[in-house]
## 1
Amino acid sequence: MALHGRLLVRGVVDVPGDKSVSHRALILAALARGSSRIHGILRSEDIESTAHVLRTLGVDVPPLSERMTVGGRGLNGLLAPATNLNCGNSGTTVRLMMGVTAAQSFPCTFTGDVSLSRRPMRRVSAPLEAMGARVEFLNADDGLPLVMHGGRLSPIEWRLETASAQVKSAILLAGLCAGVPVLVHEPAPSRDHTERFLRAQGAAIRWGNGRIELDPGGSVAPLDVQVPGDPSAAAFFAALGALADDGAVTLRGVDLNPGRTGFVNVLRRMGADITVENGIESGPEPIGDLIARPGILRATSIGPDEVPSLIDELPVLACVAARADGETAITGAAELRVKESDRIASVVANLRAIGVLADELPDGMRVVGTRAPLKGLIRTHGDHRVAMAFGILGSSAATELAIDDPACVSVSYPHFWRDLAGVTA
Ligand code: S3P
């Protein structure tokens, strides 16, 4: 990326299908009675991991394609796997499938790549063990590989210490497959895609005011779903529009679930001009187009209440803060330390390496914006969102960044660099 004089953005990005919705569409289609149609699924390495795990459990999942049909096996139809369940880099795959397999009568061994193997899994095993499953951690005292010894489960009421859609979903899926009621309390609202899917499939589920209650019946209906565009992918281009000197970028068909769009509020607060057009409720999720235009950027504070709605967007918001006037503080985001990399450490180290004043906090970071030229090498630690965040910053005026591993974006957004070139050329 060269030292640009000015950044002009122009054009439309059809962001890829939402990653969280794509995982759930495959898993819930696999558990439905009958064939489900899925349109617009994300084709990326993380979703390949979920497809691979389901195939290993006997589910008829064809190659990922724009329009695909998945043959469901019902809630009790999965088969004992002949091999380990390799989840690659995907936390959502392992955590949601731990919930599903906790209710099966056969053991399953979960493995993953180096990054995934280091990520905490006791937060998932604890409620599943309280329901009656047994989880054997083979190497460390947390993380992968682990063996899930599933079986008959009991109803559970569980209080999450930290808002986590993955843990909540694991408990809901365990209750669903075992046919036992579950009640989950969450300290702040996390993304509710699993709940929306289950409601659309006819399950007796209620949620609101920090409570999620499922009273499972004996089956769930098949799906006919259009996967909306991924707000976490759109956020990179919204940030690009905010950082630009002129122009506008349109992001089409984005999931506008309020549990995912915290970044829109933050970018607006920072001075960017973000508008929503063509908003509709289509299927389980609300969708619409986002149009992002530049503004005079100023620093902001992002606190614990907002964090669950923008947790995956914090790396790119920190990169926008690097070009905003004043000091931005992010707090209440200790969860960033256990993502695909320690995102507090990796974002701050990269910002400092290119000339931005930034500091780690135990649960967040401080970033002081600058207009000075920024230059240097970005170390991604194999983390897709770090690569894309700095890819966006690297496109802004007076910035020249090299990314050590640009290919790592393929876990969530294989065409990211092509799409970025398309709106900045
Ligand atoms: C996800 C939930 C979030 C998010 C992750 C995807 C999901 O993780 O960071 O990228 O699809 O449920 P947590 O549940 O750990 O907060």
## 2
Amino acid sequence: MSLHLHNGICIFFTGLSGAGKSTIAVALDHALQTRGKKTTLLDGDVVRTHLSSELGFSREHRDLNIHRIGFVAAEVVKHGGIAISAAIAPYDSARRQARALVESNAVDEGRFLLVYLSTPLAACEARDVKGLYAKARRGEVAAFTGISDPYEIPTDADLVIDTSQVTVDEAVNAILAKINAVT
Ligand code: ADX
């Protein structure tokens, strides 16, 4: 699919651990780069290693983590780049704050796409790539999103994708089509 995107945009994923955020984000990143676009990938685990290493998983710390991601994404978009965020971002207000930050910096409308990966908890837990759901069920990980900590389902998602129902390519194509529709 060709892309007629000019200026910056932020693709902001949200969803449970194991919902497919990193997988789709990496595939989208690749798809955009092969179309000559400059991308900045802000993956939750990577951000927590380099930018938010002192933060835990309290609401306050999660909100601060998302605020930092939103700030970086806004700077990227301001300079005409593409920011891809792939963190759980469980709280509605923090997601809206990130959207406001990016949109206030952007040159025109529609520069923040919230992509909700609605993959059901049961599917995420069955995947359990990192073994964290099992640990959370055993009580070895506290405040685990979806098990013992909240996830607020977005009411303002620009796109909803259940990765237990579609392939990675289909998900990426849906996002590229959405980018084309709004830009
Ligand atoms: S967020 O809530 O601040 O957006 P973020 O996406 O950065 O979360 O980090 C989530 C990742 O941290 C998960 O994919 C998982 O690997 C790990 N993790 C460790 N402890 C928890 C926890 N209590 N809740 C959720 N994720 C956790």
## 3
Amino acid sequence: MVPSGSAGKGRVLSGMRPTGRLHIGHFFGALQNWVRLQDEYECFYFVADWHALTTDYADSSQVAANCIEIATDWLACGLDPARCTMFVQSWVPEHAELHLLLSMVTPLGWLERVPTYKEQLENIRDKDLHTYGFLGYPLLQTADIVMYGVPGRALFVPVGEDQVPHVEMSREVVRRFNISFAPYEEELRQLSLEARVSRLANEGKSVPQTLVEPDVLLTRTPRIPGTDGRKMSKSYNNAISLTEDDDPIRAKTRVMMTDPARKRRADPGNPDVCPVFDWHNLFSSAETLAWARDGCRTAAIGCIECKAAMADNLIRWIAPVRERRKEYEAQPARVRQILEEGASRARAAAGQTMARVRAAVIPQAASRLHAPQG
Ligand code: TRP
Ligand code: SF4
């Protein structure tokens, strides 16, 4: 079954690495937006299990289980298999084939220049990341994205500012791929890639769109710091998971960081620099927000009651998510089936792209290898 009413719409592609249980930061940082996009675009959301190997190749024992975990979280958050295609990357092996073919035209310098590459190489000290796979991470990501492009239709990647250079590189790789494997007459083929582009432009011709350049869909997401004010992350132990029970929610929020200037109960505070207030913004009504804002500034309320009110509203928000999480958790076979159906839809889409790609890269081989058998 194909999600209904998606035929003429632009496509959206996004993925997440299966790193274990999701927390509320993942929801407000990405999933909330994914859920919204389901109605506007034909969406493909995938679990990037091969990407997990780029850093965790030394122990892949948790990868398969984490794929099911994260898909269960997605369903609990409101991804709807009737309105989007959700799948696991490695179940659509075309991603690896496209990655290989893209690697042929990708200059090493482009990969070395990606800002996150050097940064992570320096920051992640407990793993050896001097591997081909780790360097190629943004290129595998490019393959993931452009696999779902359809000539003549828009292709979007919803990302934050920090990911824009990745998508920019994807566009450059696509341009280089399209020009490298275009079926030109002898004379053009002898020119450098740059010269081919300008010659075509002079003649008023365009490069064939074997692959489609993606666009970023810049998404503004609300601020949701961890309980200690740093970025929310499981490894900092400052997160609330999507399955957190009431008691741990109350315990963790009770000791949350507040405006550091508000030392005593009688000191007025500034909600704009308080993580508790950031969370109020997400979970509380306009009325409660006004109560917290004014009460904080005038010291009419204390942090203890402010946090307790926020925790009540957080619990009210999380209860139905937690409930749906438990329902899907009890039916792993159903989750697996949703992913299988997603993978078969994704493979149908990937097959269309790969037919164009194979025909462009090695024309004769494409007609031999992929002709119908018999
Ligand atoms: N890099 C993303 C993450 O760490 C996962 C990812 C892989 C992705 N390929 C992608 C995201 C393509 C968007 C588009 O979670
Ligand atoms: Fe933060 Fe609320 Fe305390 Fe103000 S009263 S500092 S908003 S916890």
## 4
Amino acid sequence: MKIGIINSGGDVPGINAVIASAVKSGTLYGDEFIGFIRGWEGLLDPVDFVPLNLDSVKSISHLGGTILKTTNKGRFAGKIGEGSINLIPREILEQAFNNAKSLGVEALLVIGGDGTLTAAIQLANLGLQIIGVPKTIDNDLSVTERTFGYSTAVELVVESLGRLHTTAESHDRIFVVETMGRYAGWLALEGGLGGGASAILIPEIRFSYEKLYEYLLKRKDNGKNYSLVVVSEGAMSVEGERVTQEHKTSSEVLLGGIADEVAQKIREMSRSSFEVRSMVLGHLQRGGNPNAADIILSQAYGTAAIRAIHEGRHMEMVALISNKIKTVPISDAVRQFNLVTPDSTSYITAKSMGIFMGQ
Ligand code: F6P
């Protein structure tokens, strides 16, 4: 078969391992591959793609980023803001469909998160065989237990908190550390848990400044003159709004800035008796090489996607369910975000360890 590979949206560590494993596996079936450059844009006029073969995917599985480049803007946005579906104009969908057909592409392997996979459904509805692979450091896709890239991002948060811990303790300071994650608190929660945070503020639970301050004061009274407060970029105080930055180039709002706000508020509430610093981990969480867990998961997904294509599956996504790789309808994965809930294991763990979770 001739298979097209597309990755779209933000890069995450592990994309290259998906591409390499898919090409290696497909080659055993006698498949031919092309990879579209900069996501959906490469499938639209003027088309931009490269042939992919065993030579071009040699020694890339351990590398971060993507050899195909990517973008989270452009003519093929699947979602706007917090979950509303963006209907891609019919002429754009037809252009992509016709370009795929004239290149002889019989199936598309689409590596993406919520927005990319929502766009993929719209193209698949025109009749192009599409199989999705769940990619995002936010871990916010439903049905699958894990998206690739998430584990590496959590590791970065854990390592960063470990480093901040020693300087915070030496200086008797409070550090407010902002993580990515959009509307899901997984990165903040599990990064904070692994990295020894005292407080973790996530989008799923509106936090109280008064209670946070009380908690920090109590720590001080107990001789803990330093604290690490992890705040997810989508977190909101009881009375506040999401802190956003203008996103000039995409239909998605760019979240960010809550760490500064939290730091300033703690400073004010303590009448500057607490020395507070804030920092945003930002794109460090997406950069760099994938860890072993992400390489292995990416390879499992890449090869399963090729199997699914040969089984004739359509509009399905490979997913990790009870530690087995299965396929599920893409629509089930993007219908709603996978969010932290009171019965999430890591939430229960954090509460059981006395970590402040917002209330
Ligand atoms: O969805 C992945 C993600 O890294 C989010 O966690 C973050 O909000 C967003 O992308 C950042 O986007 P950009 O790459 O446009 O800064």
